Structures are given as structure tokens and as C-alpha cells.
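Can anyone check this?
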Amino acid sequence: SNVSKGALTLGLMQPESSLGSRFLKTVSGQTPAPGRAPSRLTSSSAQYTQLLRSFHQDALNELVTRLPPALERIQQDLLELSTRSRADAKGRNRLYETAVTMRQRKDDIGFAVLDKIESLFEEMVPAGAEANRVTPNRAEPGSDQQGLGLVDLDEFEGNLALNRWASVAEEMHKVTLEALLIRVATLLEEEPLKVRLPVHTRQLCKAFQQAIDANGIPADTSPIVLEYFCEHLIRPLDSFYESLNRHLGENGIKPDLEEQIIAKGTLLQTPTLTKPEQTRAASQDAEPVAKEPISTQPPEKDRDARAHAGHVADRLTEEDGAY
């Protein structure tokens, strides 16, 4: 570093590092692109291996293209919403602060989402069932909250919003998601319900929630940010999933799959529980995992999730003294 005539010059200690490169591109107004190693996915045949790797690369390349404009629109929507909210007693407008944080950290949030999705490609058949289910955040082991069974209200609402919007997102792309899951499972030679699809809407929502949590988005406004994420990234993913499915179908991987799913409602069969598992599930009031029939009407979950996000926004504007 150097100081001369009112000017402060700073130099990075490791400008060649990946983080240093990202920083220099960001402050210079460039949009840094994440460096990725070639896909190492494999299967039992050369054809399946090639299709898996092209699926991996095509999916991530498309997300790299779609994420930046989506994050920009999220920030703009938050800024517009903040104009309908006054500052609180301490002079803070939390929605405006969230918009500012999104503007400052959108590159880091985007990188975090992509890094998380990339990591999921390394373990597409995780141990345990329900590979594409969202698990809520929990208190740290040994913490007071865990010991007393206490949950922060904002954190609880954030987890609730995550699960609601993840369900809404899955419903939006039900047929194309199921088709892609089955085709990828075919390439992996695994049962579909054992496969975790890295670009499943639930995984995208979870990766985004983790990214905004790690980048300073407060828990009380994260449900609204997640709603805008679903609006600007998840909802327009029809062409994304259709393109991935089309490529696999044109290469002989279950070319008529979508028609079969539409005709039967679903091709995914939940394994039958053994008696001990049935008893344990009943004791935990487990929700049924049967698929809902396909409908062309707006899903009820969508309205419920929007109502919840609207409640959070209303609460913020009421607390801040809305106009």
C-alpha cells in the first residue's frame, strides 16, 4: 500500500489467487466467471459417461448465464419495495439495507450458489432416502437454542419459507423435473428416488438460502428475497429443463418419457415401508410422499407461499411505519 497527496493505493498480497482475481474483476466492473474443472462423472459405458458429462457442463453453463440477471432483478425489486417502507425508530429501513447488501454481495452470492451446485455433482447418490428433500437449518450442536428447544422466530419463518417455496418450485416444473431425474438416474444406473439431482429446484432454493445467509442477508427479510429468487430464476426454468431433457431424449435416453409421466401422473414409486418403519413414521406424524395429480391451475402451495411472504413484508412495513 502507498499514500501520496490524498490518494491511498492498496495492493493485494496474492493477486494471482482465485479470490484476488474475483476481487479485481469485481472492482473493475467486470463480471467474473467461476473457473471449473472438466466434469469427472462416469458410468458403465462410454456413451452414458459422455452424456452425464455434457449434462453436467450444460447445466452449469446455463446457470452461469441465468444467475447474474436474476440477482440484479432481485436487488431492483427489493429497492422498489423498500420505497414503501419508512425507517424504524432507529432510522433503519431493513428492506433498503437488504437491497444494498444484495447489490454489494450479488457476485459472492452467485458464486456461492454455483459452488454449492457444483459440489452436489460430486455426490449424486447420497446415503439415505429423499435425496431431493430440503432439510431446514438447525441450531448449532451444544447451543442454548438446541438444549432448550428454542427457535428464533425469524429463523423459523425463513425455514418455513424455504420449504414452502421449494415445494412451489417443484410443482412449477413437475413433469420436466421428474423426466430429468429419471433420465439422469438411468445414466447413473440407479433408482431415481436414490438420486439427488444437483439442479433440482429444491437444491437451487436451498443453495440460494445458504448463500444469502452467509452473505449478510438478515433472517427477517430472507423470505422476501427467496420469493423474488423463485420469481426471477426458478419460474423461468422451463426452457432450462426442457433443453436438458431434449438432449438426453434425442440421444436415446427414454425419448417418450414426458408423455408417459403426463398419462400416468408420475412414474416415481415410493418404496413400501416395512412394519417397523410404518410404526416409526406414524409416531412422527410423517407427511405422505405420494405425488399430487398434475394440474394446469395455479398450485395452492404457490398462493400459500406468496401469502406467507406477503405477511412477512406487511409485518416489516407495519413495524417500520408504512405509508
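Reply from J.R.: I decoded it. The beta strands are 2-4, 7-9.
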